[in-house]
Amino acid sequence: MAQIIFLTGGARSGKSRLAEELATRRGTPLGYLATGSAGDGEMAERIARHRERRGDAWTTIEEPLALAESLAAHDGRFAAILVDCVTLWLSNLLFSLDDPARVLKEVELLTRTFSSLRTPLIIVSNEVGMGIVPENRLARQFRDLAGEANERIAAAADEVYVTFSGLPLRLK
Amino acid sequence: MAQIIFLTGGARSGKSRLAEELATRRGTPLGYLATGSAGDGEMAERIARHRERRGDAWTTIEEPLALAESLAAHDGRFAAILVDCVTLWLSNLLFSLDDPARVLKEVELLTRTFSSLRTPLIIVSNEVGMGIVPENRLARQFRDLAGEANERIAAAADEVYVTFSGLPLRLK
Amino acid sequence: MAQIIFLTGGARSGKSRLAEELATRRGTPLGYLATGSAGDGEMAERIARHRERRGDAWTTIEEPLALAESLAAHDGRFAAILVDCVTLWLSNLLFSLDDPARVLKEVELLTRTFSSLRTPLIIVSNEVGMGIVPENRLARQFRDLAGEANERIAAAADEVYVTFSGLPLRLK
Fold it and tell me: Do strands C30-34 and C167-170 pair parallel, antiparallel, or not at all (unpaired)?
Protein backbone atom coordinates (compact mmCIF):
# COMPACT_ATOMS: atom_id res chain seq x y z
CA MET A 1 0.00 0.00 0.00
CA ALA A 2 1.51 3.29 -1.16
CA GLN A 3 2.24 6.20 1.13
CA ILE A 4 -0.09 9.20 0.86
CA ILE A 5 1.25 12.62 1.86
CA PHE A 6 -1.16 15.57 2.07
CA LEU A 7 0.12 19.18 2.04
CA THR A 8 -2.15 22.14 2.68
CA GLY A 9 -1.53 25.85 3.21
CA GLY A 10 -2.39 29.31 1.94
CA ALA A 11 -1.80 30.70 -1.53
CA ARG A 12 1.90 30.95 -2.36
CA SER A 13 2.89 29.46 0.98
CA GLY A 14 5.53 27.15 -0.50
CA LYS A 15 3.33 24.03 -0.73
CA SER A 16 4.24 23.14 -4.31
CA ARG A 17 7.98 23.58 -3.77
CA LEU A 18 7.84 21.39 -0.66
CA ALA A 19 5.74 18.83 -2.55
CA GLU A 20 8.34 18.70 -5.34
CA GLU A 21 11.10 18.15 -2.79
CA LEU A 22 9.17 15.31 -1.15
CA ALA A 23 8.49 13.71 -4.55
CA THR A 24 12.11 14.02 -5.68
CA ARG A 25 13.25 11.97 -2.68
CA ARG A 26 11.26 9.04 -4.11
CA GLY A 27 13.49 8.78 -7.19
CA THR A 28 12.54 9.04 -10.87
CA PRO A 29 10.52 9.11 -13.08
CA LEU A 30 7.96 11.42 -11.47
CA GLY A 31 4.39 12.24 -12.45
CA TYR A 32 2.84 15.71 -12.10
CA LEU A 33 -0.93 15.45 -12.18
CA ALA A 34 -2.24 18.95 -12.94
CA THR A 35 -5.93 19.40 -12.19
CA GLY A 36 -5.94 22.86 -13.76
CA SER A 37 -5.79 23.44 -17.48
CA ALA A 38 -3.66 25.95 -19.32
CA GLY A 39 -6.83 27.48 -20.80
CA ASP A 40 -6.86 30.52 -18.59
CA GLY A 41 -3.98 32.99 -18.72
CA GLU A 42 -3.05 33.03 -15.03
CA MET A 43 -3.08 29.22 -14.94
CA ALA A 44 -0.99 28.91 -18.12
CA GLU A 45 1.63 31.18 -16.56
CA ARG A 46 1.58 29.17 -13.34
CA ILE A 47 1.92 25.81 -15.14
CA ALA A 48 4.82 27.19 -17.24
CA ARG A 49 6.62 28.43 -14.11
CA HIS A 50 6.17 25.06 -12.37
CA ARG A 51 7.33 23.18 -15.46
CA GLU A 52 10.48 25.29 -15.69
CA ARG A 53 11.26 24.72 -12.01
CA ARG A 54 10.74 20.96 -12.20
CA GLY A 55 12.85 19.74 -15.12
CA ASP A 56 13.18 16.54 -17.12
CA ALA A 57 12.41 13.87 -14.54
CA TRP A 58 8.75 14.92 -14.58
CA THR A 59 5.88 13.92 -16.86
CA THR A 60 2.79 16.15 -16.77
CA ILE A 61 -0.66 14.54 -16.78
CA GLU A 62 -3.62 16.93 -17.16
CA GLU A 63 -6.81 15.65 -15.56
CA PRO A 64 -9.43 18.16 -14.44
CA LEU A 65 -12.14 15.73 -13.25
CA ALA A 66 -11.49 11.94 -13.16
CA LEU A 67 -8.69 12.04 -10.59
CA ALA A 68 -9.17 8.59 -9.03
CA GLU A 69 -9.38 6.94 -12.46
CA SER A 70 -6.30 8.78 -13.72
CA LEU A 71 -4.24 7.81 -10.67
CA ALA A 72 -5.30 4.18 -11.09
CA ALA A 73 -4.42 4.27 -14.82
CA HIS A 74 -0.92 5.63 -14.11
CA ASP A 75 -0.24 3.47 -11.05
CA GLY A 76 3.11 1.70 -11.05
CA ARG A 77 4.60 3.93 -13.78
CA PHE A 78 6.24 6.56 -11.55
CA ALA A 79 8.36 6.70 -8.39
CA ALA A 80 5.72 9.14 -7.08
CA ILE A 81 2.89 11.29 -8.42
CA LEU A 82 2.35 14.89 -7.27
CA VAL A 83 -1.31 15.96 -7.44
CA ASP A 84 -1.58 19.77 -7.82
CA CYS A 85 -4.11 20.69 -6.58
CA VAL A 86 -7.23 19.51 -4.77
CA THR A 87 -9.03 22.88 -4.69
CA LEU A 88 -8.85 23.30 -8.49
CA TRP A 89 -10.14 19.75 -8.88
CA LEU A 90 -13.06 20.50 -6.51
CA SER A 91 -13.77 23.70 -8.41
CA ASN A 92 -13.86 21.80 -11.73
CA LEU A 93 -16.13 19.13 -10.23
CA LEU A 94 -18.50 21.69 -8.70
CA PHE A 95 -18.76 23.49 -12.04
CA SER A 96 -19.41 20.19 -13.81
CA LEU A 97 -21.71 18.44 -11.29
CA ASP A 98 -23.33 21.54 -9.73
CA ASP A 99 -23.89 19.76 -6.40
CA PRO A 100 -21.48 19.66 -3.41
CA ALA A 101 -22.86 16.28 -2.27
CA ARG A 102 -21.96 14.73 -5.62
CA VAL A 103 -18.50 16.31 -5.47
CA LEU A 104 -17.94 14.77 -2.04
CA LYS A 105 -18.77 11.36 -3.53
CA GLU A 106 -15.83 11.90 -5.92
CA VAL A 107 -13.62 12.73 -2.92
CA GLU A 108 -14.77 9.50 -1.28
CA LEU A 109 -13.92 7.63 -4.49
CA LEU A 110 -10.43 9.17 -4.37
CA THR A 111 -9.75 8.22 -0.74
CA ARG A 112 -11.04 4.69 -1.34
CA THR A 113 -8.57 4.38 -4.24
CA PHE A 114 -5.61 5.10 -1.91
CA SER A 115 -5.51 1.58 -0.47
CA SER A 116 -5.13 -0.06 -3.90
CA LEU A 117 -2.32 2.18 -5.23
CA ARG A 118 1.34 1.17 -5.35
CA THR A 119 2.68 4.62 -6.36
CA PRO A 120 3.17 7.10 -3.49
CA LEU A 121 1.12 10.29 -3.81
CA ILE A 122 1.96 13.80 -2.70
CA ILE A 123 -1.34 15.71 -2.74
CA VAL A 124 -1.40 19.52 -2.57
CA SER A 125 -4.44 21.48 -1.40
CA ASN A 126 -5.25 24.99 -0.18
CA GLU A 127 -6.66 26.39 3.05
CA VAL A 128 -9.47 28.73 2.00
CA GLY A 129 -11.49 28.98 5.23
CA MET A 130 -9.47 31.38 7.38
CA GLY A 131 -10.71 34.66 5.93
CA ILE A 132 -13.89 36.59 6.62
CA VAL A 133 -17.11 34.78 5.61
CA PRO A 134 -17.59 35.55 1.86
CA GLU A 135 -20.68 37.58 0.94
CA ASN A 136 -21.13 35.47 -2.19
CA ARG A 137 -23.17 32.31 -1.54
CA LEU A 138 -21.26 30.26 -4.12
CA ALA A 139 -17.97 31.24 -2.48
CA ARG A 140 -19.35 30.13 0.93
CA GLN A 141 -20.47 26.85 -0.62
CA PHE A 142 -17.05 26.27 -2.17
CA ARG A 143 -15.31 27.15 1.08
CA ASP A 144 -17.39 24.60 2.98
CA LEU A 145 -16.79 21.98 0.29
CA ALA A 146 -13.01 22.54 0.34
CA GLY A 147 -12.96 22.28 4.14
CA GLU A 148 -14.89 18.98 4.09
CA ALA A 149 -12.75 17.54 1.29
CA ASN A 150 -9.46 18.53 2.96
CA GLU A 151 -10.61 16.94 6.21
CA ARG A 152 -11.51 13.68 4.48
CA ILE A 153 -8.29 13.47 2.46
CA ALA A 154 -6.19 14.34 5.53
CA ALA A 155 -7.98 11.59 7.50
CA ALA A 156 -7.04 9.05 4.81
CA ALA A 157 -3.43 10.26 4.40
CA ASP A 158 -0.35 8.87 6.18
CA GLU A 159 1.38 12.24 6.65
CA VAL A 160 -0.18 15.73 6.70
CA TYR A 161 1.57 19.13 6.70
CA VAL A 162 0.40 22.76 6.67
CA THR A 163 2.79 25.40 5.32
CA PHE A 164 3.23 29.05 6.33
CA SER A 165 5.73 31.35 4.62
CA GLY A 166 7.38 28.37 2.96
CA LEU A 167 7.84 26.42 6.20
CA PRO A 168 5.90 23.25 7.03
CA LEU A 169 4.28 22.20 10.30
CA ARG A 170 3.49 18.52 10.63
CA LEU A 171 -0.12 17.79 11.61
CA LYS A 172 -0.03 13.99 11.30
CA MET B 1 -12.23 26.00 39.04
CA ALA B 2 -13.41 24.41 35.80
CA GLN B 3 -11.16 23.70 32.84
CA ILE B 4 -11.59 25.98 29.80
CA ILE B 5 -10.59 24.60 26.39
CA PHE B 6 -10.52 26.96 23.39
CA LEU B 7 -10.56 25.62 19.81
CA THR B 8 -10.09 27.84 16.80
CA GLY B 9 -9.59 27.19 13.08
CA GLY B 10 -10.96 27.93 9.64
CA ALA B 11 -14.44 27.17 8.33
CA ARG B 12 -15.13 23.43 8.15
CA SER B 13 -11.75 22.60 9.59
CA GLY B 14 -13.06 19.97 11.99
CA LYS B 15 -13.34 22.20 15.07
CA SER B 16 -16.85 21.18 16.04
CA ARG B 17 -16.18 17.47 15.66
CA LEU B 18 -13.03 17.76 17.79
CA ALA B 19 -14.95 19.83 20.35
CA GLU B 20 -17.64 17.16 20.57
CA GLU B 21 -15.00 14.48 21.13
CA LEU B 22 -13.37 16.53 23.90
CA ALA B 23 -16.76 17.12 25.55
CA THR B 24 -17.77 13.47 25.34
CA ARG B 25 -14.70 12.47 27.36
CA ARG B 26 -16.15 14.45 30.28
CA GLY B 27 -19.12 12.14 30.63
CA THR B 28 -22.85 12.95 30.45
CA PRO B 29 -25.13 14.88 30.38
CA LEU B 30 -23.65 17.44 27.98
CA GLY B 31 -24.77 20.96 27.12
CA TYR B 32 -24.54 22.45 23.63
CA LEU B 33 -24.76 26.22 23.81
CA ALA B 34 -25.63 27.43 20.30
CA THR B 35 -25.03 31.15 19.77
CA GLY B 36 -26.65 31.03 16.33
CA SER B 37 -30.35 30.72 15.84
CA ALA B 38 -32.18 28.48 13.41
CA GLY B 39 -33.84 31.54 11.85
CA ASP B 40 -31.70 31.59 8.74
CA GLY B 41 -31.75 28.64 6.33
CA GLU B 42 -28.03 27.87 6.25
CA MET B 43 -27.86 27.99 10.07
CA ALA B 44 -30.95 25.78 10.47
CA GLU B 45 -29.35 23.17 8.22
CA ARG B 46 -26.08 23.39 10.20
CA ILE B 47 -27.81 23.04 13.57
CA ALA B 48 -29.80 20.06 12.28
CA ARG B 49 -26.63 18.34 11.04
CA HIS B 50 -24.87 18.93 14.36
CA ARG B 51 -27.86 17.69 16.33
CA GLU B 52 -28.03 14.51 14.27
CA ARG B 53 -24.31 13.85 14.78
CA ARG B 54 -24.47 14.43 18.53
CA GLY B 55 -27.26 12.25 19.85
CA ASP B 56 -29.20 11.93 23.07
CA ALA B 57 -26.61 12.85 25.68
CA TRP B 58 -26.80 16.49 24.57
CA THR B 59 -29.16 19.29 25.57
CA THR B 60 -29.22 22.33 23.28
CA ILE B 61 -29.33 25.81 24.81
CA GLU B 62 -29.86 28.71 22.39
CA GLU B 63 -28.35 31.97 23.59
CA PRO B 64 -27.37 34.58 21.00
CA LEU B 65 -26.23 37.38 23.37
CA ALA B 66 -26.04 36.80 27.15
CA LEU B 67 -23.38 34.10 27.05
CA ALA B 68 -21.77 34.69 30.46
CA GLU B 69 -25.17 34.81 32.17
CA SER B 70 -26.37 31.66 30.42
CA LEU B 71 -23.21 29.74 31.37
CA ALA B 72 -23.61 30.84 34.98
CA ALA B 73 -27.29 29.84 34.99
CA HIS B 74 -26.50 26.34 33.67
CA ASP B 75 -23.39 25.83 35.78
CA GLY B 76 -23.22 22.49 37.59
CA ARG B 77 -25.93 20.90 35.46
CA PHE B 78 -23.70 19.26 32.82
CA ALA B 79 -20.47 17.25 32.66
CA ALA B 80 -19.31 19.87 30.13
CA ILE B 81 -20.78 22.63 27.96
CA LEU B 82 -19.71 23.12 24.34
CA VAL B 83 -20.03 26.76 23.19
CA ASP B 84 -20.49 26.94 19.39
CA CYS B 85 -19.37 29.50 18.40
CA VAL B 86 -17.65 32.70 19.49
CA THR B 87 -17.71 34.45 16.09
CA LEU B 88 -21.51 34.11 15.75
CA TRP B 89 -21.88 35.46 19.29
CA LEU B 90 -19.64 38.44 18.43
CA SER B 91 -21.61 39.04 15.27
CA ASN B 92 -24.90 39.03 17.23
CA LEU B 93 -23.44 41.40 19.82
CA LEU B 94 -22.04 43.78 17.20
CA PHE B 95 -25.42 43.87 15.46
CA SER B 96 -27.14 44.52 18.79
CA LEU B 97 -24.68 46.95 20.44
CA ASP B 98 -23.25 48.56 17.27
CA ASP B 99 -19.91 49.28 18.98
CA PRO B 100 -16.83 46.99 19.05
CA ALA B 101 -15.67 48.46 22.39
CA ARG B 102 -18.96 47.48 24.03
CA VAL B 103 -18.71 44.00 22.49
CA LEU B 104 -15.22 43.59 23.98
CA LYS B 105 -16.69 44.43 27.40
CA GLU B 106 -18.98 41.41 26.97
CA VAL B 107 -15.92 39.29 26.11
CA GLU B 108 -14.27 40.55 29.30
CA LEU B 109 -17.40 39.63 31.25
CA LEU B 110 -17.19 36.13 29.77
CA THR B 111 -13.51 35.59 30.64
CA ARG B 112 -14.09 36.93 34.18
CA THR B 113 -16.88 34.36 34.58
CA PHE B 114 -14.47 31.48 33.86
CA SER B 115 -12.96 31.47 37.35
CA SER B 116 -16.32 31.02 39.07
CA LEU B 117 -17.60 28.12 36.91
CA ARG B 118 -17.58 24.47 38.00
CA THR B 119 -18.60 23.04 34.59
CA PRO B 120 -15.77 22.60 32.06
CA LEU B 121 -16.22 24.57 28.84
CA ILE B 122 -15.15 23.71 25.32
CA ILE B 123 -15.35 26.96 23.34
CA VAL B 124 -15.25 26.95 19.53
CA SER B 125 -14.23 30.00 17.49
CA ASN B 126 -13.11 30.80 13.94
CA GLU B 127 -9.97 32.29 12.46
CA VAL B 128 -11.17 35.01 10.10
CA GLY B 129 -8.04 37.15 9.75
CA MET B 130 -5.85 35.16 7.33
CA GLY B 131 -7.40 36.30 4.06
CA ILE B 132 -6.88 39.47 2.07
CA VAL B 133 -7.98 42.69 3.85
CA PRO B 134 -11.73 43.00 3.15
CA GLU B 135 -12.80 46.04 1.10
CA ASN B 136 -15.91 46.39 3.25
CA ARG B 137 -15.29 48.51 6.36
CA LEU B 138 -17.74 46.53 8.49
CA ALA B 139 -15.98 43.30 7.54
CA ARG B 140 -12.62 44.81 8.55
CA GLN B 141 -14.14 45.95 11.84
CA PHE B 142 -15.56 42.48 12.51
CA ARG B 143 -12.25 40.84 11.59
CA ASP B 144 -10.39 43.05 14.08
CA LEU B 145 -13.00 42.39 16.75
CA ALA B 146 -12.83 38.62 16.26
CA GLY B 147 -9.02 38.71 16.43
CA GLU B 148 -9.07 40.69 19.71
CA ALA B 149 -11.76 38.49 21.24
CA ASN B 150 -10.00 35.24 20.26
CA GLU B 151 -6.76 36.52 21.77
CA ARG B 152 -8.48 37.43 25.06
CA ILE B 153 -10.36 34.14 25.36
CA ALA B 154 -7.22 32.14 24.47
CA ALA B 155 -5.28 34.05 27.14
CA ALA B 156 -7.88 33.07 29.75
CA ALA B 157 -8.17 29.42 28.62
CA ASP B 158 -6.27 26.44 30.01
CA GLU B 159 -5.79 24.66 26.68
CA VAL B 160 -5.86 26.15 23.16
CA TYR B 161 -5.88 24.34 19.79
CA VAL B 162 -6.02 25.43 16.15
CA THR B 163 -7.32 22.95 13.57
CA PHE B 164 -6.38 22.48 9.90
CA SER B 165 -8.04 19.87 7.68
CA GLY B 166 -9.58 18.22 10.74
CA LEU B 167 -6.27 17.92 12.63
CA PRO B 168 -5.47 19.97 15.75
CA LEU B 169 -2.23 21.72 16.69
CA ARG B 170 -1.87 22.58 20.35
CA LEU B 171 -1.00 26.23 21.01
CA LYS B 172 -1.22 26.20 24.82
CA MET C 1 25.76 39.20 12.06
CA ALA C 2 22.52 40.28 13.70
CA GLN C 3 19.67 37.94 14.51
CA ILE C 4 16.57 38.22 12.29
CA ILE C 5 13.22 37.12 13.74
CA PHE C 6 10.19 36.91 11.45
CA LEU C 7 6.63 36.84 12.85
CA THR C 8 3.61 36.21 10.68
CA GLY C 9 -0.08 35.59 11.42
CA GLY C 10 -3.58 36.81 10.70
CA ALA C 11 -4.99 40.25 11.42
CA ARG C 12 -5.14 41.00 15.16
CA SER C 13 -3.55 37.68 16.02
CA GLY C 14 -1.16 39.12 18.60
CA LYS C 15 1.87 39.46 16.29
CA SER C 16 2.73 43.05 17.25
CA ARG C 17 2.43 42.42 20.99
CA LEU C 18 4.68 39.35 20.71
CA ALA C 19 7.12 41.33 18.55
CA GLU C 20 7.28 44.06 21.19
CA GLU C 21 8.00 41.47 23.89
CA LEU C 22 10.79 39.92 21.81
CA ALA C 23 12.30 43.36 21.15
CA THR C 24 12.11 44.41 24.80
CA ARG C 25 14.27 41.42 25.79
CA ARG C 26 17.08 42.95 23.73
CA GLY C 27 17.38 45.99 26.00
CA THR C 28 17.04 49.68 25.14
CA PRO C 29 16.84 51.94 23.17
CA LEU C 30 14.46 50.32 20.68
CA GLY C 31 13.50 51.36 17.16
CA TYR C 32 9.98 50.99 15.74
CA LEU C 33 10.09 51.16 11.96
CA ALA C 34 6.52 51.88 10.80
CA THR C 35 5.95 51.20 7.11
CA GLY C 36 2.45 52.70 7.26
CA SER C 37 1.83 56.40 7.54
CA ALA C 38 -0.62 58.17 9.79
CA GLY C 39 -2.31 59.70 6.73
CA ASP C 40 -5.31 57.42 6.78
CA GLY C 41 -7.65 57.43 9.74
CA GLU C 42 -7.58 53.73 10.60
CA MET C 43 -3.76 53.73 10.41
CA ALA C 44 -3.44 56.85 12.56
CA GLU C 45 -5.58 55.22 15.22
CA ARG C 46 -3.49 52.03 15.01
CA ILE C 47 -0.17 53.89 15.29
CA ALA C 48 -1.49 55.87 18.27
CA ARG C 49 -2.58 52.69 20.04
CA HIS C 50 0.78 51.05 19.43
CA ARG C 51 2.65 54.13 20.59
CA GLU C 52 0.64 54.25 23.81
CA ARG C 53 1.32 50.57 24.50
CA ARG C 54 5.04 50.84 23.84
CA GLY C 55 6.28 53.73 25.94
CA ASP C 56 9.45 55.78 26.22
CA ALA C 57 12.13 53.26 25.27
CA TRP C 58 10.95 53.37 21.65
CA THR C 59 11.81 55.73 18.79
CA THR C 60 9.46 55.65 15.79
CA ILE C 61 10.94 55.77 12.28
CA GLU C 62 8.42 56.16 9.43
CA GLU C 63 9.62 54.64 6.15
CA PRO C 64 7.02 53.52 3.62
CA LEU C 65 9.38 52.42 0.80
CA ALA C 66 13.17 52.38 1.30
CA LEU C 67 13.23 49.76 4.04
CA ALA C 68 16.69 48.27 3.41
CA GLU C 69 18.26 51.73 3.21
CA SER C 70 16.53 52.91 6.37
CA LEU C 71 17.62 49.83 8.33
CA ALA C 72 21.22 50.32 7.15
CA ALA C 73 21.10 54.02 8.09
CA HIS C 74 19.87 53.25 11.63
CA ASP C 75 22.10 50.20 12.15
CA GLY C 76 23.99 50.17 15.45
CA ARG C 77 21.80 52.81 17.06
CA PHE C 78 19.26 50.53 18.77
CA ALA C 79 19.25 47.31 20.82
CA ALA C 80 16.73 46.03 18.26
CA ILE C 81 14.45 47.38 15.54
CA LEU C 82 10.86 46.17 15.13
CA VAL C 83 9.64 46.41 11.50
CA ASP C 84 5.82 46.72 11.40
CA CYS C 85 4.82 45.52 8.87
CA VAL C 86 5.92 43.79 5.66
CA THR C 87 2.51 43.70 3.98
CA LEU C 88 2.01 47.47 4.27
CA TRP C 89 5.51 47.96 2.85
CA LEU C 90 4.68 45.63 -0.08
CA SER C 91 1.43 47.48 -0.64
CA ASN C 92 3.27 50.84 -0.73
CA LEU C 93 5.88 49.43 -3.13
CA LEU C 94 3.26 47.89 -5.42
CA PHE C 95 1.38 51.21 -5.55
CA SER C 96 4.64 53.05 -6.29
CA LEU C 97 6.34 50.59 -8.71
CA ASP C 98 3.19 49.02 -10.24
CA ASP C 99 5.02 45.74 -10.94
CA PRO C 100 5.25 42.71 -8.59
CA ALA C 101 8.60 41.65 -10.13
CA ARG C 102 10.13 45.01 -9.21
CA VAL C 103 8.67 44.76 -5.70
CA LEU C 104 10.29 41.34 -5.27
CA LYS C 105 13.65 42.92 -6.20
CA GLU C 106 13.18 45.23 -3.19
CA VAL C 107 12.48 42.19 -1.02
CA GLU C 108 15.68 40.63 -2.32
CA LEU C 109 17.55 43.84 -1.47
CA LEU C 110 16.13 43.63 2.06
CA THR C 111 17.16 40.01 2.64
CA ARG C 112 20.65 40.69 1.22
CA THR C 113 21.00 43.55 3.73
CA PHE C 114 20.41 41.15 6.67
CA SER C 115 23.96 39.76 6.63
CA SER C 116 25.57 43.19 7.01
CA LEU C 117 23.40 44.44 9.93
CA ARG C 118 24.55 44.52 13.54
CA THR C 119 21.15 45.44 15.02
CA PRO C 120 18.73 42.52 15.56
CA LEU C 121 15.46 42.83 13.64
CA ILE C 122 12.00 41.66 14.59
CA ILE C 123 9.97 41.72 11.37
CA VAL C 124 6.16 41.49 11.45
CA SER C 125 4.10 40.34 8.46
CA ASN C 126 0.59 39.05 7.75
CA GLU C 127 -0.80 35.85 6.32
CA VAL C 128 -3.28 36.90 3.62
CA GLY C 129 -3.54 33.72 1.55
CA MET C 130 -5.82 31.49 3.62
CA GLY C 131 -9.17 32.90 2.53
CA ILE C 132 -11.21 32.25 -0.58
CA VAL C 133 -9.54 33.36 -3.86
CA PRO C 134 -10.39 37.08 -4.23
CA GLU C 135 -12.55 38.03 -7.22
CA ASN C 136 -10.52 41.21 -7.69
CA ARG C 137 -7.43 40.67 -9.87
CA LEU C 138 -5.35 43.24 -7.96
CA ALA C 139 -6.17 41.50 -4.68
CA ARG C 140 -5.06 38.15 -6.17
CA GLN C 141 -1.85 39.77 -7.38
CA PHE C 142 -1.17 41.25 -3.95
CA ARG C 143 -1.93 37.96 -2.24
CA ASP C 144 0.57 36.15 -4.46
CA LEU C 145 3.17 38.87 -3.90
CA ALA C 146 2.76 38.75 -0.11
CA GLY C 147 3.07 34.95 -0.15
CA GLU C 148 6.30 35.08 -2.19
CA ALA C 149 7.77 37.86 -0.05
CA ASN C 150 6.93 36.12 3.23
CA GLU C 151 8.53 32.92 1.97
CA ARG C 152 11.74 34.74 1.00
CA ILE C 153 12.03 36.68 4.23
CA ALA C 154 11.30 33.56 6.30
CA ALA C 155 14.00 31.67 4.36
CA ALA C 156 16.53 34.40 5.26
CA ALA C 157 15.46 34.71 8.92
CA ASP C 158 16.97 32.90 11.90
CA GLU C 159 13.69 32.35 13.75
CA VAL C 160 10.15 32.25 12.33
CA TYR C 161 6.82 32.17 14.20
CA VAL C 162 3.16 32.15 13.18
CA THR C 163 0.58 33.41 15.68
CA PHE C 164 -3.04 32.33 16.25
CA SER C 165 -5.27 33.95 18.87
CA GLY C 166 -2.25 35.63 20.43
CA LEU C 167 -0.24 32.41 20.75
CA PRO C 168 2.87 31.68 18.67
CA LEU C 169 3.91 28.45 16.95
CA ARG C 170 7.57 28.22 16.02
CA LEU C 171 8.18 27.31 12.36
CA LYS C 172 11.98 27.69 12.33
Answer: unpaired
Residues 92-151 of C with CB under 8 A from B: 127-132, 134, 136, 139, 142-143
Beta bridge partners of A124: A7, A84
C40-60 b/e (C-beta count within 10 Å ≥ 16 → b): eeeeeebbeebeeebeeebee
**Residue of chain B whose alpha carbon sits nearest to that of A126:** B165
Q: How far is CA A112 from CA B14, C9, C125, in A?
A: 20, 35, 40
Q: C124 CA to chain B: closest CA distance, Å?
A: 14
CB contact under 8 A, C10 and A130: yes
Residue type, A120: P
Binding site annotation covers A10? yes
The tens digit of pLDDT for each residue in A145-164 reads 999 999 999 999 999 999 99
Q: Is C50 a catalytic residue?
A: yes
pLDDT in tens, C112-142: 999 999 999 999 999 999 999 999 999 999 9
Which amino acid is it at A162?
V
Q: How confident is the model at residue C102 (pLDDT cuts 50, 70, 90)?
A: very high
* CA–CA min distance A74, chain B (Å): 27
**What are φ and ψ of residue C9, in 5° steps?**
160, 175
CATH number at residue B59: 3.40.50.300
Of A14, A128, A136, the CB nearest to C131: A128
C155, closest residue in chain A (CA to CA) = A166
Give the structural domain span for B102. 4-170
Q: How large is the greatest C-alpha to C-alpha distance in chain C, in angstroms? A: 45
Catalytic residue among A50, A58, A82, A88: A50
> Does residue A168 have a cis bond before it (omega within 30 degrees)?
no
Tell me which DSSP letter residue A114 carries: G
| CB < 8 Å to A10, chain B | 130
Instruction: Tell me what pLDDT residue C50 has.
Output: 72
* Partner C contacted by B154 (CB < 8 A): yes
Strand-pairing partners, residue C169, are C162
CB contact under 8 A, C172 and A167: yes
The answer to ipTM > 0.95 is no
Strands (E) located in A45-124: 58-62, 80-84, 121-124
- Residue ranges in chain B whose pLDDT is less than 50: none
- Residue B134 region, left (φ>0) first, then alpha (ψ -120 to 50), else beta? beta
> Which of C114, C160, C118 has the alpha carbon at shortest distance from C6?
C160
Stretch A6-10: mean pLDDT: 97
A13 near C CB under 8 A? yes
Report the gap between the CA of C139 and the closest CA in chain B (Å). Answer: 7
Instruction: Please give the tally of structural domains in chain B.
Output: 1
